[in-house]
Amino acid sequence: MNRLPAARHFARTLEGESIAYRSYGTGEPVVLVHGTALSQVVWRGLGYVEALAPDHRVITIDLRGHGQSSIPVTADRYSLERLAGDVLAVLDDAGIASAHYIGYSLGGLIGFWLVDRLPERIRSFTALAGTFRPADESADRVFFPEPAGVIAAGGMDAFVEQWVRARGESVDAETSRALRRNDPRAMIALLTALGAERPMDTERLAAMRTPSLLIVGDADTACSEPTREAAMRMPDARLVVLAGEDHASILGASAQVVSEVRRFLRAQRSRSDLT
């Protein structure tokens, strides 16, 4: 694709973390935020960037602890507020006042935080297997019991191998590579921090008026029910349930996901034209 950038960019958070990001294409900005233990490379590897960049300025991010960003190794550096700060730092560095937001898993959880706390920065919100409660996406539910212990004992290779056994099938090569590249200390810190996050009151969902698209697989035992609940309570949310997809496989169902996202983003443009 001829719009790929020549070099990556780095933003600085308020506490000095370096957050790597890339910018593709032109047009209304769309920020893509990955899940736990992944990185921004999955969006390009699975075709999301190529599908969206012809019509949008696409921003992909490495959250702290992932990819080419700073790698803190203590749990206090991984609160949801700090992770959301990574996204805001990138938007500020890129000169973007507000963007369409697409988040997978942890990225979706961060998106709910931003829509709740700073809705003026989010033009629209797409959660892909991401919910509003940290407990819904706890590593014990999404991956397998006690993943931090597995990582501590055998590193990220042991984590991937245990996850494959727990799923009963392999994960795609792009996801496997991204998982194995992580610093085990950072992943343990992140999992510890997310496990200590307070749940969001469901009543707050009714105040989230940002146009939202909530996508989940019907085989996602961790996120299917809370995603349906959020869609029911949020005043401007559309629910899409993909048959046969679980928490891991839905990211690789890029053709279906991108089709829904493109339709949703076109609808937002039409709504904007009418106002």
Annotate the secondary structure layout.
Elements lengths: L8 E4 L5 E7 L3 E6 L7 H5 L2 H5 L3 E6 L18 H14 L5 E6 L1 H12 L4 E7 L10 H4 L4 H21 L5 H8 L3 H12 L16 E6 L6 H10 L3 E6 L6 H4 L1 H21 L1
Parallel strand pairs: 3-4, 3-5, 5-6, 6-7, 7-8
Antiparallel strand pairs: 1-2, 2-4
Percentage of residues in DSSP E strands = 15-25%
Instruction: Tell me the series of helices and strands, N- to C-terminal.
Output: EEEHHEHEHEHHHHEHEHH
CATH superfamily: Alpha/Beta hydrolase fold, catalytic domain
Number of domains: 1
Give the strand tally.
Answer: 8
**What is the structural class?**
alpha/beta
How can the largest sheet be summarized? 8 strands, mixed
Give your account of this protein's structure.
The protein contains eleven helices and eight strands. The chain is α/β, with parallel strands linked by helices and 275 residues long. The radius of gyration is 17 Å and the shape is globular. It has one domain (9-132, 199-274): 3-Layer(aba) Sandwich (Rossmann fold), CATH 3.40.50. Helix 9 links the parallel strand 7 and strand 8 (237-242). The mean pLDDT is 92. 42% of the residues lie in helices and 17% in strands.
List keywords for this structure.
275 residues, alpha/beta, 8 strands
Short précis:
The chain is of the alpha/beta class and 275 residues long.
